[in-house]
Specification:
Layout: H1 9-19, H2 23-35, H3 41-50, H4 57-66, H5 74-86, E1 93-94, E2 98-100, E3 106-108, E4 112-114, E5 119-123, H6 131-146, E6 150-154, H7 156-159, H8 163-178, E7 187-188
Parallel strand pairs: 5-6
Antiparallel strand pairs: 1-4, 2-3, 2-7, 4-5
Helix pairs in contact: 1-2, 1-3, 2-4, 2-5, 3-4
InterPro entries: DUF559
Protein name: DUF559 domain-containing protein
Organism: Tenggerimyces flavus
């Protein structure tokens, strides 16, 4: 490469996550590398284990433990950190299809899903503010809730200046979900599961 030194993908990932300004950005970085299949999770874990004395290794370990290659954006990754670390909700399923349990019809693909409580987390970026997208989001949210799921929507300000309020909203929604009558749930993750 013309004598120019170039770092490999694993070392680049390691440097990105250990030098990130905070855990949210570290998770966003490792998710992006996993999403692009530039690195594998096990490879990053092994690399971190081989460099235990380096600055930022503790953050790198935490970031990889929270990482998920199914995350579709850095904002979703940041949301997952608020969900799991700040709100203390177990790591969610990420972008998994949810189906109606009686008919197998696709209800949606939530950004985040806590199966136990039926809590859905949706990150709304700028594209969600167009009238068409917002209209579709509203209809999909109603369908998810009609099937027994609880939906919490967040935006960039919710993860920054309103983060404490967002954490409270998430905790309250999870409590409501845990208290629900699960016999009334009409959703499943199994497409062919029809009652």
């Amino acid at each position: 490469m013309s004598g120019i030194p170039v770092l490999g993908a694993i070392r680049t990932t390691f440097d990105l996550i250990r030098r990130a300004p905070d855990l949210s950005e570290a998770v966003a970085a490792v998710d992006a590398m996993l999403r692009q299949t530039l690195v594998g999770r096990d490879d990053v874990v092994d690399y971190i284990a081989e460099h235990t004395g380096w600055r930022g290794v503790r953050r790198a370990r935490r970031a990889v433990a929270l990482a998920d290659s199914r995350s579709r954006s850095c904002a979703e990754s940041r949301f997952r950190v608020a969900w799991a670390v700040d709100a203390g909700i177990p790591l969610p399923e990420v972008n998994v299809p949810v189906y109606g349990s009686s008919d197998g019809v696709l209800l949606g693909i939530p950004d985040l899903l806590d199966i136990e409580s039926g809590l859905v987390g949706e990150y709304d970026g700028a594209q969600h503010r167009t009238l068409e997208h917002h209209t579709a989001d509203n209809a999909r949210e109603e369908v998810l809730e009609q099937h027994g799921l609880t939906v919490v929507r967040v935006t960039a300000p919710d993860l920054a200046q309103f983060r404490r309020r967002t954490v409270y909203r998430l905790k309250q929604a999870r409590e409501r979900g845990l208290a629900r009558d699960r016999r009334l749930d009409r959703w499943t993750l199994e497409r062919d599961h029809v009652i």
